[in-house]
């Protein structure tokens, strides 16, 4: 199970709207100062993803929840997204090269196969996201933001 913390944006009728921060993997590397990838990550947009997850327990905006998704579903979706266009590209490029015998035909076939593989992955992805095992689930729920109170005392108060 792959786990990530999210913040509740709203909860209504058993469905929670959650906000997840996008984290770059560059934050924990020892060579952060001289890394070109870190600089490129800072230049791009800092995205926040919002997802809807079913929750029978009432949640409060600002509350933290731990989400989990099955590793198998994540790996399967990554395999589908990356491999379908790549396989389509190679198959159609080879087929067009064999049929027409020119590099231009192979390039056209590669473009057609890559686009077709992308569209296939997109269509299958929409069908697969309806499966329950592909949906993120709430594993644990943190305290509501107003449930935690911190009192500070100074030496002048005499307490």
UniProtKB/TrEMBL annotation:
The lineage of its organism: Bacteria, Pseudomonadati, Pseudomonadota, Gammaproteobacteria, Enterobacterales. The chain crosses the membrane at residues 79-98, 104-121. It holds the Pfam family RseC_MucC. NCBIfam families: PRK10862.1. This is SoxR-reducing system protein RseC. It comes from the Bacteria. The keyword Metal-binding does not apply. The keyword Glycosyltransferase does not apply. It comes from Siccibacter turicensis. PANTHER family: PROTEIN RSEC.
């Amino acid at each position: 199970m792959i786990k990530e913390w999210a913040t509740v944006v709203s909860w209504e009728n058993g469905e929670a709207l959650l906000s997840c921060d996008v984290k770059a993997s560059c934050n924990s590397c020892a060579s952060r100062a001289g890394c070109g990838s870190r600089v490129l990550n800072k230049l791009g947009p800092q995205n926040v993803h919002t997802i809807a997850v079913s929750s029978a327990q009432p949640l409060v905006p600002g509350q933290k929840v731990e989400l989990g998704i099955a590793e198998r579903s994540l790996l399967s979706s990554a395999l589908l997204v990356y491999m379908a266009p790549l396989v389509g590209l190679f198959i159609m490029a080879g087929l067009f090269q064999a049929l027409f015998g020119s590099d231009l035909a192979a390039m056209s076939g590669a473009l057609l196969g890559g686009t077709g593989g992308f569209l296939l992955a997109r269509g299958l992805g929409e069908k697969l996201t309806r499966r329950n095992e592909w949906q993120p689930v709430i594993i644990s729920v943190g305290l509501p933001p107003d449930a935690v109170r911190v009192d500070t005392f100074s030496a002048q108060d005499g307490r």
